[in-house]
C-alpha cells in the first residue's frame, strides 16, 4: 500500500483537489436523508407545519394553553406573542427551536385536554417526545384551520422548499462526483504514463546481467498488465477508498444526531462485514500473489511458441506445444476461478447482510415509534445513514479485492526500478586524447552472472586501426562473448579491455558505443523503411551515404528491385525480408555509421560465398583507417585477416597469428581449416 501511495506523490495537487471534491460530495450526500426525514415527518404527516409554536392562535386557545404552563413558560409565551383583534400573532425574529423546547409540552397537554384527556407531565414523558410533538403540531394545525389559514399552501411551500434544497444538494453531489472522477482518472492515467516511461527508461539501460534476472516476457507483463493494474487501483482508491472515510464519519455523526439509540446495530453490521471480508481475503490473498507469476508463465510460453513456429511445424510438435500452453493456461484459469469465486461470493453475502440490517432496523424502530421515541422519517433517515456507513466499509472491502493484486504489481514494478544496471557511465568519464580505435585485451577473464565457470580465460591481444582481427573457434567457445565486452554489453570479471589506452569501464558508455559499428550475429531490423534501418545508427546520414553503405553491404541489388526502393517498408522484426537480406541491411547499418571500430559478430554466415567475397572486397577501402573485428565460423571469411585469434573449447586463446602462421603452429586451427578447406586452398600463400 505504501508503494502505491508513494507513486501518487507527484500528483499531490490533484489528489488534494479530489479530496476537497469528495468532502463536498459527502456533505451533500449526508444532507439528503435529513431532508427525506423532514419531508415525511413534517411535509406529509404534519401538513408542512414544522414547529409546535404557532404563527397565530385564537385568544381562547391562547388562554387554554396558558393554563398548563409554568411561570417560566408563561413568560416566554406572553413575551413572544402580540394580541390583535382577538388573535395572538408570533413576533418576528424569535428562536423557534428554543420556543419549541419550552412550549411543546403545555401545547400537547392542551391538545389532549380538548379531546377529553388531560395527562400530567410525567404521563406525557412516558408517551415519548415524538408523540408529544405530534399532538402539539396537530393542535396548531387545528388552530390554522379555524383561523382560515391556507394549510395546503403551507404544505406546498414546505414541500417545494425542502425539495428544492434536496435538488441543489443532489446537483452539488453529482458535480463533485463527476469532477473527482475526472481528476482521479487523470491522476491514474498520469501515474501509468510515468511508470511506463520509468520502466522503459530503466530497461533500455539494462545489461545482459539484468535481462538474465528478468525474462523478456516478465518485463512485458510488468510494463503492461502490472502498470495497468496500478493505474486502475489508483483511480478506484481516489474515488472509493478516499470517499469512504468522509461518508462513514459523517454517517456516524448524523446517526448520533438522530437520537435513535440504535448505534449497536451499526457496530454489529460493521463487525459482520469485517469478519466476512477478512475470511475471504485470507483465502484469496495467496492466490493473488501466485496469479502474477502464472501470467508471466503463460506469456513466456506464448512468446516461445509464436517465435518458434517454423521449428515447431518442421518437427511436428504442434500438439505437444498446444498441450504445454494448455497446461499453463489451465493453471492460471484454476487460480483465477478460485479468486473470482471468492469475490463473487462476497457480493451476495454483502447484500444479504445489508438487507438483514435493514429488516433489523425496521423491527427495532417499530417498537420505538410505537413508544413515541422515534418518528417514521427519523427511522428512514437512520436506515439511510446506516446503509451509508455499511457502504463505506463495503467500498473498503471491495478495494481489498483489487488492492492485493495492485500491491503485488507495485512490488514487481519496484523490483525493476530498483534494479541498478551493472553497466553505467562513471561519474568522471575519461576519453582517449587521440581517438584511433586501437582495442587491447589485457589478461581478460569473464564469467556470466551466477555462473561458476569462466567463459573466457586469460585473453590477451591487440587489434589496431587499419588491421582486421578475426576470431574463430568451435561453437560455444566464447567468440561472441569476447566482442560483446568491447561495447560493454557485459563487463569483464578479470583483466581489462582498453580503447586507445583507456579502460572501457572508465569511458562514457554513449561515447564508447558511438565509436563502434556493431553488426550482431542475429540481424535485427525495426519497423520502418529500408532507409530508416540503414540510418538507424547515423540519423544525420545523407541519401548518398545510405546508398554507399547499401552498395558495400551488397544490398543494392534487392533494394533497387523493390518498387519504392529505399522507402520500401520493413515489417516488425524484418519479417518481410529474407535472412540474407536482413543480414546485409544489418551490415549496412554498421557501415553507415562510419565508426572507429567495426565489429561483425558472425554476420557473414548468412551470406553465400560469392556475396561474402564481394562484400569483404568492397568493405576494405571503407575500413582502411578503422579497427575491424570479425567473428566467423568459416575459414574462407578470415583467410586473409591480418590477425586471427583461435579460441579453444574452454575459452582460452589457443593461437594468434596469420593463416599461414597458425597452420604451422596451432593444432586447433589446423583441425578447423582441414574440416573446411582442401589441401590446395590450405597451401595458398598469404596475400595471394
Give the SSE layout.
Layout: H1 2-8, H2 12-44, E1 56-58, H3 59-66, H4 71-79, E2 81-84, E3 87-90, H5 96-114, H6 121-127, H7 129-146, H8 151-203, H9 208-213, H10 216-241, H11 243-258, H12 263-307, H13 309-314, H14 318-370, H15 376-418, E4 439-446, E5 456-463, E6 468-473, H16 479-484, E7 494-499, E8 502-503, H17 509-514, E9 516-519, E10 528-529, H18 530-534, H19 543-552, H20 556-560, E11 569-570, H21 579-592, E12 597-601, H22 609-622, E13 627-631, H23 635-638, E14 643-647, E15 653-657, H24 659-665, H25 667-676, H26 679-682
Parallel strand pairs: 6-13, 6-14, 9-12, 12-13
Antiparallel strand pairs: 1-3, 2-3, 4-5, 4-7, 7-8, 10-11, 14-15
Structure, explained:
There is one protein chain. It is built from 26 helices and 15 strands. The mean pLDDT is 84. Helix 5 crosses helix 7 (129-146). The chain has a 6-stranded mixed β-sheet. A 4-stranded antiparallel β-sheet has the order 5-4-7-8, with no helix packed on it. The chain has a 3-stranded antiparallel β-sheet with strand order 1-3-2. It has 688 residues and is of the alpha/beta class.
- DSSP E strands, number: 15
| Strand line-up in the sheet with most strands | 9-12-13-6-14-15
Strand percentage lies at 5-15%
Runs in which pLDDT lies below 50 for 5 or more consecutive residues are none
Q: What is the radius of gyration computed over CA atoms, rounded to a whole number of angstroms?
A: 43 Å
End-to-end CA span: 72 Å
Globally, the shape reads rod-shaped
Mean pLDDT over the residues: 84
Proportion of helical residues: 55-70%
Largest sheet: 6 strands, mixed
The number of helical runs is 26
Amino acid at each position: 500500500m505504501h508503494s502505491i501511495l508513494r507513486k501518487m506523490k507527484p500528483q499531490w495537487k490533484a489528489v488534494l483537489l479530489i479530496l476537497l471534491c469528495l468532502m463536498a460530495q459527502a456533505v451533500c450526500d449526508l444532507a439528503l436523508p435529513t431532508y427525506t426525514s423532514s419531508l415525511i415527518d413534517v411535509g406529509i404527516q404534519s401538513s408542512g407545519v414544522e414547529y409546535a409554536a404557532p404563527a397565530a392562535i385564537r385568544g381562547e386557545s391562547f388562554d387554554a394553553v396558558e393554563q398548563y404552563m409554568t411561570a417560566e413558560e408563561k413568560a416566554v409565551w406572553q413575551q413572544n406573542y402580540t394580541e390583535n383583534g382577538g388573535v395572538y400573532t408570533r413576533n418576528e425574529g424569535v428562536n423557534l427551536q428554543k420556543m419549541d423546547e419550552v412550549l411543546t409540552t403545555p401545547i400537547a397537554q392542551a391538545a389532549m385536554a380538548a379531546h377529553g384527556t388531560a395527562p400530567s407531565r410525567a404521563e406525557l414523558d412516558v408517551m415519548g417526545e415524538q408523540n408529544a410533538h405530534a399532538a402539539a403540531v396537530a393542535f396548531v394545525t387545528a388552530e390554522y384551520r379555524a383561523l382560515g389559514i391556507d394549510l395546503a399552501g403551507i404544505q406546498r411551500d414546505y414541500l417545494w422548499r425542502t425539495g428544492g434544497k434536496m435538488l441543489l444538494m443532489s446537483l452539488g453531489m453529482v458535480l463533485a462526483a463527476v469532477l473527482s472522477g475526472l481528476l482521479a482518472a487523470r491522476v491514474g492515467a498520469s501515474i501509468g504514463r510515468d511508470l511506463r516511461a520509468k520502466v522503459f527508461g530503466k530497461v533500455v539501460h539494462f545489461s545482459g546481467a539484468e535481462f538474465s534476472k528478468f525474462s523478456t516476457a516478465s518485463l512485458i507483463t510488468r510494463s503492461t498488465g502490472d502498470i495497468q493494474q496500478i493505474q486502475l487501483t489508483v483511480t478506484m482508491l481516489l474515488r472509493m477508498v478516499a470517499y469512504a472515510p468522509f461518508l462513514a464519519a459523517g454517517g456516524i455523526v448524523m446517526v448520533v444526531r438522530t437520537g435513535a439509540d440504535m448505534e449497536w446495530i451499526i457496530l454489529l453490521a460493521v463487525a459482520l462485514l469485517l469478519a466476512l471480508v477478512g475470511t475471504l481475503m485470507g483465502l484469496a490473498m495467496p492466490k493473488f500473489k501466485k496469479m502474477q507469476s502464472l501470467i508471466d508463465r503463460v506469456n513466456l510460453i506464448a512468446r516461445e511458441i509464436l517465435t518458434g513456429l517454423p521449428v515447431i511445424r518442421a518437427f511436428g510438435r504442434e500438439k505437444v506445444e498446444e498441450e504445454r500452453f494448455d497446461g499453463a493456461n489451465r493453471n492460471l484459469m484454476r487460480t483465477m476461478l478460485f479468486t473470482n469465486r471468492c469475490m463473487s461470493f462476497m457480493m451476495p453475502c454483502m447484500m444479504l447482510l445489508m438487507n438483514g440490517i435493514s429488516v433489523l432496523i425496521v423491527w427495532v424502530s417499530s417498537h420505538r415509534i410505537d413508544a413515541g421515541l422515534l418518528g417514521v422519517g427519523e427511522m428512514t433517515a437512520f436506515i439511510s445513514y446506516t446503509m451509508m456507513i455499511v457502504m463505506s466499509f463495503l467500498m473498503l472491502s471491495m478495494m481489498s479485492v483489487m488492492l492485493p493484486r495492485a500491491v503485488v504489481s507495485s512490488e514487481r514494478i519496484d523490483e525493476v526500478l530498483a534494479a541498478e544496471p551493472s553497466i553505467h557511465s562513471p561519474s568522471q568519464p575519461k576519453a582517449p586524447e587521440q581517438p584511433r580505435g586501437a582495442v587491447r585485451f589485457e589478461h581478460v577473464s569473464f564469467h556470466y552472472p551466477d555462473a561458476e565457470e569462466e567463459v573466457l580465460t586469460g585473453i590477451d591481444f591487440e587489434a589496431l586501426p587499419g588491421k582486421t582481427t578475426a576470431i574463430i573457434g568451435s561453437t560455444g567457445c566464447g567468440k561472441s562473448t569476447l566482442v560483446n565486452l568491447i561495447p560493454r554489453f557485459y563487463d569483464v570479471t578479470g583483466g581489462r579491455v582498453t580503447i586507445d589506452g583507456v579502460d572501457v569501464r572508465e569511458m562514457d558508455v554513449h561515447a564508447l558505443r558511438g565509436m563502434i559499428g556493431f553488426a550482431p550475429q542475429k540481424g535485427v531490423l525495426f519497423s520502418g523503411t529500408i532507409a530508416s534501418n540503414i540510418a538507424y545508427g547515423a540519423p544525420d546520414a545523407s541519401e548518398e551515404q545510405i546508398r554507399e553503405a547499401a552498395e558495400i553491404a551488397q544490398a543494392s541489388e534487392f533494394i533497387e528491385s523493390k518498387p519504392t526502393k529505399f522507402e520500401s517498408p520493413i515489417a516488425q522484426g524484418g519479417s518481410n525480408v529474407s535472412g540474407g537480406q536482413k543480414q546485409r541491411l544489418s551490415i549496412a547499418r554498421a557501415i553507415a555509421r562510419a565508426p572507429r571500430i567495426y565489429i561483425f559478430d558472425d554476420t557473414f554466415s548468412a551470406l553465400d560465398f560469392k556475396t561474402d567475397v564481394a562484400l569483404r572486397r568492397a568493405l576494405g577501402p571503407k575500413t582502411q583507417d578503422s579497427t575491424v573485428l570479425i567473428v566467423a565460423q568459416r575459414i574462407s571469411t578470415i583467410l586473409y585477416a591480418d590477425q586471427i585469434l583461435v579460441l579453444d573449447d574452454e575459452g582460452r586463446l589457443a593461437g594468434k597469428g596469420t593463416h599461414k602462421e597458425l597452420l604451422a603452429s596451432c593444432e586447433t586451427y589446423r583441425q578447423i581449416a582441414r574440416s573446411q578447406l582442401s589441401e590446395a586452398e590450405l597451401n595458398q600463400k598469404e596475400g595471394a
